[in-house]
Structure formats: structure tokens, C-alpha cells
Specification:
Blueprint lengths: L1 H37 L4 E3 L3 E3 L3 E6 L4 E8 L6 E2 L3 E5 L4 E11 L4 E11 L6 E3 L3 E3 L3 E6 L7 E5 L8 E2 L5 E3 L4 E11 L4 E14 L3 E2 L3 E5 L4 E5 L9 H4 L2 E5 L2 E3 L1 E6 L5 E6 L9 E5 L10 E2 L2 E6 L25 E4 L11 E4 L9 E6 L6 E5 L3 E2 L5 E10 L5 E8 L3 E3 L5 E2 L5 E8 L7 E8 L7 E12 L2
Parallel strand pairs: 2-8, 10-16, 17-25
Antiparallel strand pairs: 1-3, 3-6, 4-5, 4-7, 7-8, 9-11, 11-14, 12-13, 12-15, 15-16, 18-19, 19-23, 20-21, 20-24, 22-23, 24-26, 27-30, 28-29, 29-38, 30-37, 31-37, 32-36, 32-38, 33-34, 33-35, 33-37
Length: 469
């Protein structure tokens, strides 16, 4: 019985040993394959969301590398073969970073990482006024970039609040003095912050403070008048230095600053007149005095209405109507033949000085008077001063052309001398004074008279009417 038990134990031991050997052999093959494929290729970036001006560190920790090639878009490094590369980004957007790795066993791998670069946060603000009487309030306006998601205002010296996270807080000042204001604008992700401080931005006084009651532009964009309801003290050189004019966001040269004859207006004469469509602002640092002792409020981005505006309505630029057609809103007449001669006029889109189209009329050399007049008048002010400008040229050099305006029926007002055209586009102008009665709606009118017997073409474009007052 004892001998039989020993034999069975020996058999079971041999079987278990064989099974263990087979299991270990199988495990050895599997682990060898896993080790080659799993840890051979490994890359990463230390961050994928940054702000303009920041860097990303790229790291390739792959094993058994024969060659590597990084390529980057949007950064200050275009390509690299290094295992670790730092790339700086100076513009916003989403940019790919690609790595191709060739391994020693002849295989390769490639992968692309996407980097998001956010714009910089910019802090900016304005106030509805910068000079106030003790106990008054000022409303501040947040003008920071849209990327900011949190605000932190600081109002040292204010009475009701000294800090705020509101967009447009209202702040009261109960003590005389000058005060600075700080705004910090931040973005949470990716983190970016910007702070702006305006030193001595707020002035608090214990006397009356006055602001302009009106402002206007005259002399065809050359003269700006800022008017108060109290007489002003004579301007010193120090006071003149506190004024500036901004045209389309850029400082404009001021030729002269003076008081009006009634001492109610500050007159600023521009070295270069403002033109149609430009944005004009006056800035004044403040603390000048009126004759009564009232303090002039500071002006920040004080808008002046740009009166250099074309007052003509209708198709005076010939943009309406198709090429080859007679221009809408206009009419013709040949008083010698007593007929309309529309067929000699056409809108063209091949040669223009204002917009994409102009008017061409082809004179036939007959010597007849040809008349063209506009049917869409513009309303003007009695006794007002105005200027009309237009572009013209002719294929006949030296052609004399009679252009006027019409009011009070068929009476031409301020008939200028005939315009002598050249073969090049030239801008012409003439000034008129409105009458004080009758039909004050003006129309354009011109007459063609040429006795040379020659046929020629005339091109016209961009009629405009401006107020000079």
C-alpha cells in the first residue's frame, strides 16, 4: 500500500512540472511581443492651450529611434530633429504639431498634436465724465476685449465702493482731489490677465463744472467749435496744450486754437481738413475756467458731428442703372431740335473715378445745345454756403462745359465760369449761396455747346454737394 502511494505522487509531480514549463514558455513569448510594441513610441506636449506669446515644450521619449522629424505650424520653429523642442506662438489660432519617427527595425510612426493659441486679453475703459463736483457720481464703462471673463476695478479715494467686478460700475466721490482708476481684465482658461491704470484720471472739485452745450464742424472740415453756455477766460498756451483732435483714430495736427468773438466757443483749426466719412473727436485734459469761475469739464473721446457729408440724393454717382443704359433719375433735352437725346448717354462700368460706374455721353459735333438735368433734388438751408464737386474728362482736350445748379424753377444760381476739360480725370468744384426764398430744392444741370464740328466723348462721375457752414 505505501509503495503505490509514492508512485502516484511521483506521477502527479511530473505532470505539474510539465504544465508549469509550458505556461512559462507561453508567457515569455507574449511579454516579449508586448514590450516591443507598447513602449517604443511615446510623445507629448507639456500643454495644448496657451496664450499668444507663450511656448509649448514638445518631448519625444520613443525608444530605438533611427530618425525623427518634427514639423510645426504657426510657431517660431518650423521643423526639428531634436527629442525636446520648445516652440513659441505669437498669433492666435489652432495649429498642428506633427512628429514622424523612423525606428531601427525599419518601422515608423507619426502623430499630430493640436495646439490652441488664445488672443491676449486687453484692458480698457472710459468714463461718462472725468471732472465732477464733490458728492457726484461717475459711471465707468468696460471696453476690454471680449475674451475677458472677469473684471477687477479699483477706485482709490471713492466713497461708495473702492472695488468692483461689475462691467459698468457707478462710483461716488465725496472729497476734493484727483484720483486714479485701475481695471484688471482676466481670462480663466488659458489664464491671461491685463491691467490698465489711468493716473489722476478723475478730478473732484467744489465749484460748478460745465460741459459743452454743442459742437459743430464748419469751413468744409477745417474748423471745429466746442461751445459752452458761459463765457470763457482767455486761453493760455498751457490751456491750448490740453486740447487734441483725433481723426479716424490718429492724432491730427491743429493749426490754431482760439476763442470765438463772443467768448463762448473754443475754435480748433485743423491743418488738414477732415473729409467725408471720417470720425472726428476732440479731447481736453480739463481744469480750465470760465469767466464766472466755473470749471470746464474734461473731454474724453468727445465726438464731433462730421458735416462733410454728401447732401445730394438720387443717382448722382451713376451707380444705378446697367451698363449701356441711360442713367435713372436724369433727363435730357436738345432745345435746338426740340427733342430728347437720351440715346447719346450711357452708364459705363469700364472707366470710373467714384464707385464702379460713370456716365459717358457722345457728342455728335452738330453744334446743338445738349442739356442734362438731375431729377432728385437736395434740400438746403436758405442763405447757406455750399460747394459742389465732380469728376470729369473729355476725349477732346480743352472742351468748355457749362455746369450749374437750379433753384426757384428754371433760374440758375451762382452760375460759374465754364469748366475746361482735359483728357485726364480731374475733380472740379464751385461754391454757391442758397437763395432766401422760392424752391430751395436744387438740381444739377449742364449744357453742352461746341461749334468745332467735332465729335467727341465726355465722361462724368461722382457729383457731391457739401455744406460749408
Amino acid at each position: 500500500m505505501k509503495k503505490l502511494t509514492i508512485n502516484k505522487i511521483t506521477q502527479w509531480s511530473s505532470f505539474l512540472l510539465l504544465a508549469a514549463i509550458l505556461i512559462l514558455a507561453a508567457c515569455a513569448d507574449t511579454s516579449q511581443d508586448f514590450e516591443i510594441r507598447e513602449i517604443q513610441y511615446k510623445i507629448f506636449a507639456d500643454r495644448t492651450n496657451i496664450t499668444i506669446g507663450e511656448s509649448v515644450e514638445y518631448i519625444d521619449s520613443s525608444k530605438n529611434v533611427a530618425n525623427r522629424e518634427w514639423t510645426f505650424e504657426g510657431g517660431d520653429v518650423f521643423s526639428s530633429e531634436q527629442a525636446t523642442v520648445e516652440v513659441n506662438y505669437n498669433e492666435a489660432g489652432q495649429f498642428p504639431a506633427e512628429l514622424v519617427v523612423d525606428f531601427q527595425d525599419g518601422t515608423n510612426e507619426e502623430r499630430t498634436l493640436l495646439i490652441n493659441v488664445a488672443p491676449l486679453v486687453e484692458s480698457a475703459f472710459a468714463a461718462n465724465k472725468t471732472t465732477i463736483i464733490v458728492g457726484s457720481s461717475i459711471t465707468f464703462e468696460n471696453l476690454s476685449s471680449e475674451f475677458a471673463d472677469s473684471l477687477a476695478w479699483e477706485f482709490p479715494g471713492a466713497s461708495n465702493i473702492t472695488e468692483s467686478d461689475e462691467s459698468n460700475p457707478t462710483v461716488r466721490y465725496d472729497n476734493v482731489g484727483t484720483y486714479s482708476v485701475t481695471l484688471n481684465a482676466s481670462r480663466t482658461f488659458p489664464l491671461n490677465t491685463n491691467t490698465v491704470t489711468k493716473t489722476d484720471f478723475i478730478t473732484v472739485v467744489d465749484v460748478a463744472v460745465i460741459s459743452p452745450v454743442s459742437s459743430n464742424m464748419s469751413q468744409f472740415g477745417s474748423l471745429l467749435a466746442v461751445t459752452y453756455d458761459e463765457e470763457l477766460q482767455p486761453l493760455t498756451d498751457e490751456e491750448r496744450a490740453k486740447y487734441s483732435v483725433i481723426v479716424d483714430g490718429a492724432p491730427a495736427d491743429i493749426a490754431d486754437i482760439s476763442l470765438s468773438d463772443d467768448n463762448l466757443s473754443i475754435l480748433l483749426t485743423l491743418a488738414t481738413p477732415a473729409t467725408e466719412g471720417q470720425t472726428v473727436q476732440v479731447e481736453y485734459a480739463g481744469d480750465g475756467f470760465a469767466a464766472t469761475g466755473s470749471l470746464l469739464a474734461g473731454l474724453v473721446e468727445f465726438n464731433i458731428t462730421n458735416t462733410v457729408v454728401n447732401l445730394f440724393t438720387g443717382n448722382v454717382d451713376f451707380e444705378n442703372g446697367g451698363a449701356g443704359e441711360f442713367p435713372p433719375d436724369w433727363g435730357t433735352w436738345n432745345p435746338d431740335k426740340m427733342v430728347n437725346n437720351n440715346g447719346f448717354y450711357e452708364v459705363i462700368d469700364t472707366d470710373a473715378m467714384s464707385g464702379s460706374k460713370s456716365l459717358k455721353f457722345s457728342y455728335d459735333g452738330s453744334g446743338d445745345r445738349w442739356i442734362l438735368d438731375n431729377k432728385s433734388p437736395a434740400t438746403i438751408i436758405p442763405n447757406g454756403n455750399y460747394r459742389i464737386t465732380f469728376w470729369a474728362k473729355s476725349t477732346k482736350d480743352g472742351f468748355a462745359w457749362d455746369v450749374r445748379t437750379i433753384e426757384s424753377g428754371w433760374a440758375a444760381n451762382d452760375d460759374p465760369a465754364d469748366f475746361v476739360l482735359t483728357t485726364d480725370w480731374v475733380q472740379y468744384s464751385f461754391d454757391i449761396v442758397a437763395t432766401d426764398g422760392g424752391n430751395l430744392n436744387r438740381k444739377l444741370w449742364w449744357q453742352t455747346v461746341d461749334g468745332s464740328g467735332e465729335a467727341f466723348d465726355v465722361f462724368v462721375d461722382g457729383f457731391k454737394l457739401y455744406s460749408l457752414d
